[in-house]
Write a structure and sequence with these properties.
127 residues; 5-stranded mixed beta sheet; alpha+beta; 2 helices; two-stranded antiparallel sheet; globular
Length: 127
């Protein structure tokens, strides 16, 4: 189990942990930036649809590694529009449930394809 080290700042901003410690003998999983693409390579036009697909892909990668969202240590999320934060956060919250990995969300001017509204990368560890 990954051990949270909260100091209280995160609780003032959102549903994530201030810091997470990984046990010494843990297996690690690091993902690439994962956009919200359908398996045919097309992205939904809205942030909710793209976020849903991105998180489905993240969960699938975790499952292949015999992990769950509770094994997440760190998530880094990139959005191209500040106005999408609330809608994205609703989707993320549904997928994370009670898991509280360390988290960073950035608003960037663009991602690798103009149609991408979100990319998510994660680090997970399981003892």
């Amino acid at each position: 189990m990954n051990v949270p080290h909260d100091i209280g700042i995160a609780s003032q901003i959102g549903k994530y942990g201030d810091a997470v410690e990984v046990p010494a003998a843990a297996r690690w999983l690091l993902t690439s930036g994962t956009p919200g693409l359908a398996l045919d390579g097309t992205p939904p036009e809205d942030i909710s649809g793209q976020a849903e697909l991105a998180w489905q892909h993240i969960v699938a990668m975790l499952e292949r590694a015999e992990m769950t969202v509770n094994d997440l240590v760190k998530i880094t999320q990139y959005l191209t529009r500040e106005s999408d934060i609330a809608a994205y956060a609703q989707v993320r919250s549904r997928f994370l449930g009670h898991a509280r990995p360390a988290s960073m969300l950035l608003i960037v001017p663009a991602l690798v394809r103009p149609s991408f509204l979100v990319e998510v990368e994660v680090v997970a560890a399981r003892a």
